[in-house]
Amino acid sequence: MKQNENFYLKIIKDIQGLIQVELNNEKIQLATEKIKLRLNILNFAKIEDYYEYYLQNVDVEIRNLISILTNHTTEFFREPEHFDFLADEIFPEFIKRNKPIRIWSAAASSGKEVYSIAICYLEACYTLGIKYEFIPPIEILGTDIDSISIEKCENGIYLASEIEKEIGKVLIQKYFDFGKDELKNHVRIKDSVHKLCKFKVHNLLVTPEDFGKFNIILIRNIIIYYKRKEVKNIIMSIKNHLEKHGYLILGHSESLNGITVPFTHIKNSIYLLNSEIMPDFTKVFVIDDALTVRDFLRKILTKEENFLLVGEAENPIEAMEILSTLEQQPHVIILDLNMPKMNGIEYLEFLKDKPHPPIVVMSSINFDEADNGIRCLELGAFDYIEKPKGVHSTMEIINIKNTILEARKSSKETFLKNKKSFSENKYYNLPKNISKPDLIAIGSSTGGVEALQTILTQIDKNFPPIVIVQHIPEYFSSALANRLNELCHFKVYEGKNKQVLENNCVYLAPGGKQMRIIEEKNSLILEVNDTEKINMHKPSIDYLFYSIAQLKIQLNICALILTGMGNDGANGLKELYDKNAFTIAQDEESSVVFGMPKEAIALGGVHHVASLKDIPNILKRIL
């Protein structure tokens, strides 16, 4: 038995000499079991017979044993925080400047990490409105010590059921071709993704001569297998192939603690070469001809508050010139409406269908601006907030900052929204037996103007009363009702006190007021009042939903919560859910801000989660 063990140890020592990994007793035992697997494959009964064969065919066997002994644990978008970082922080900066980017995945395994990076990059481009033929240059190099793994990478063929679990149906249909005949249960990465990637056999302990410089190097979940001295040698070798201020990304269980290397830890096992930590400022650009407003924003958007005002302009013409050469591109643009040369509406129209940061309109809120306010939201403005005047309350300042932060957040993420879509969860399948509703209630906030237009313009005749709370400034609700009347073939009212609800009509809560439903003489009546804000909102979705839940008359209710920040409506929707109402939440992918729907889902108050494009079809089905 001792002699047998020596044969195994000789082979393991040969492999260890090549890959230089540290093996404790547990790993030696595991390696022994894997060599036994090789014996079975070749039909050798005894280790000594295999060892003789091994010595005669050492090149081929070393190749196969390296593949068996090295770690191949991998999946698409493994450790997703790293892909969030690429999608949110790195790729947009390169894409907006049309700047080439080079990335090295130093432990490619089966290619899933390399192709995940490519998909992440393409999704970031598409999010910014850039078609495939116009994407900025990217080169992704995948290397592995195992030549068999590199062959698998090049093939890019995977079991379909495995990939669907890892990335979901949306991405698999977008970036993979389905196999036929003997490969009918497999998928292959599309050529459009494959052409962005190259693969090579490479030992990390050997300094590459022809790799060039990279902006990002990923060496995830591999250095834990090396001795401390080898880890430092690997990192120092990799350092020579990083551009200045390049990024090194390790696995979550790995770190450079205790190793003297020229890297600064940022977060989540991500390191920056030769640089101090750069604070994650929210960068803002202001377009407003009023010096007092620009001064005010300079005072409140400070570095101490994690904001950085990267530029300002008196009008959009000047802004476009500055932005075209600005070193630090903004996360968010604050835009006034009334300016010389080009006004805010004209600028939004110019930007329509072009990639640009989220835009927060900050302008006057009055009756004369109401139509323009609705038009801004239709043109894709993230939100419309009132321009500060006179003494500024603490709540006003907090609201401005929170809106900017939410606007920045809305531009993130993107491709990962498709990855684990709520709507793919069986829990959210549409119930089979849904009673035809007697009343439909809808709550929406940021992004809600577009969402409401999408839903209401597809509703047919013969529907019950629809009551809506859209978080909207005073004066704007009337303009929104007028706009919806232009688009819809039925009547849309701005809700009035004592108004009787009728079929085939829509009632929109007035801005700056609370609206609820009460019973009076067997009829449903609107009550519009000046009750204080609920959840910092007036009108409040919860205020409307709670009133419906408290009705004594037996009604079949359908309630929807759409895109919006915060949690208004979540508790009210749960109350309706508990009273047997059928409840729907807009999904994350189609929401401008997945705040209110997310909160409602977390409370367990949602029967079905659906994309915005699917919600009209669901309503048609139950009506």
Automatic annotation (TrEMBL):
InterPro entries per the UniProt record, alphabetical: CheB_C, CheR_C, CheR_MeTrfase, CheY-like_superfamily, SAM-dependent_MTases_sf, Sig_transdc_resp-reg_Me-estase, Sig_transdc_resp-reg_receiver
Domain CheB-type methylesterase span(s) in chain numbering: 433-623
SMART domains referenced in this protein's UniProt entry, alphabetically: MeTrc, REC
Modification type 4-aspartylphosphate: residues: 336
Any single Pfam family the record assigns to this protein: CheR
Coiled-coil region: none
Assigned EC number: 3.1.1.61
Keywords, ordered alphabetically: Chemotaxis, Cytoplasm, Hydrolase, Phosphoprotein
PANTHER family according to UniProt: PROTEIN-GLUTAMATE METHYLESTERASE/PROTEIN-GLUTAMINE GLUTAMINASE (PTHR42872), PROTEIN-GLUTAMATE METHYLESTERASE_PROTEIN-GLUTAMINE GLUTAMINASE (PTHR42872:SF6)
Protein name: protein-glutamate methylesterase
Source species: Fluviispira sanaruensis
Biological classification of the source: Bacteria, Pseudomonadati, Bdellovibrionota, Oligoflexia, Silvanigrellales
